[in-house]
Amino acid sequence: MSNPIEVKSTLKPAYDHVIVGGGVAADKAARAIREEAPEASVLIISDVGDGPLYRPGLSKDLWLKAGTTLEDIDLGTTQTGAELLLGTTVTALDPASHTVTTSDDQQIRYGRLLLATGASARRIDTPDDDRIVYYRNADDYRHLRSLVSEGTRVAIVGGGYIASEIAAGLSAVGADVSVHFPNNRLLEQMFPDSITGHLTEVYESKGVSLNSGFRLSSIRAGRKLTLEPETGEAVEADVVVLGLGAIPNVRLAEEAGLEMEQGGVLVDETLQTSAPDVYAAGDIATFEDPLLGRRRVEHMANAERSGDAAGRTMAGNRTGYRYTPLFWSDLFDDGYEALGETRTSHRVEEVWNDAHDAAVLYYLDGDRVRGVLMWNTWGAVSKAREVMEASKEGQLPLSELADRITPGG
What we know:
Blueprint: H1 7-10, E1 14-20, H2 24-36, E2 42-45, H3 56-59, H4 61-64, E3 83-85, E4 90-94, E5 99-102, E6 107-115, E7 119-121, E8 132-134, H5 138-147, E9 153-157, H6 161-172, E10 176-180, H7 193-205, E11 209-211, E12 216-221, E13 225-229, E14 235-237, E15 239-242, E16 246-248, H8 251-255, E17 260-261, E18 264-266, E19 278-280, E20 285-289, E21 293-296, H9 300-314, E22 326-331, E23 334-340, E24 347-352, E25 359-365, E26 368-375, H10 381-392
């Protein structure tokens, strides 16, 4: 794993490219810059103590694959020749002077800058107790792993993406896991009843207790942690994991006066912000999706592709970002790949195979396909893109949907 560099002895006053943020987008940008401009100087500044990691591994492989370590998901960004300044926060950005200021009052000049600051876990008012965990980075993994052993009672609050994945992971290492969420079923904001009902059966068969209609009021810390709901019975646990969503880290951009939209930093087709020589990628970028219009996306494929595109443009190879990001997950023995707006506030058309163990779900706004989810169906993302493109152009009658992608194929 990468270690923080000695700032006073190695940091230069100026770099051709400065990247603020230490995730996948930063890694991809550094690699793209090296390919396009091998002699360019690159500095990555990150407020965490580890170099860029393959972040899905934090909630998947590290729990589900025996023997997997943080080293196994380290992206090896130092191989790009970039310098990594870790455990350091950028406190100010001045586009006019092309400088950033760090938390130890160093001022660094850049030729071009990439903001790839990602998102942070949404927090609430809780006691200052090490047994209450928000889950986002490698330090969170180390800490949670140190707290959990066979039979540890872990209560997870949240009913979304991270909560569902970490519940599966903790169950796999022998924890006594319960999940508490306000909706009727886990992940019902994404999946229709046909899938949420199946998932309920699967999670409970693995020993995970699912508790719907739970709205957290407060947490009390004593010998045990006690979750107090707005109504109903309190819940005791040894460890509490709060999976309440994420908030994009846009403070630096806002304070620098960059144009914002939809909670993110507005970028053009090359991912340049409203400030000259300042780019944004990954979770914080509000970009023009070719199939869905202007949006902001917090998924790995978006971080990878936008980081690469931004890096190439910064290094002189103007690269347009015209991409509709996919995302995926594995939930015990089931899995899915998805594209676009997969939310049940849209009308959902379901196409199942005969065995009823694989499906293709189409998310419709009127006659327009806004998202496609392939449940236990692999290798069909390109077909899903074709469906959404044809629908956008008005060339896809809804009566033809069932024949476009074969479930389970």
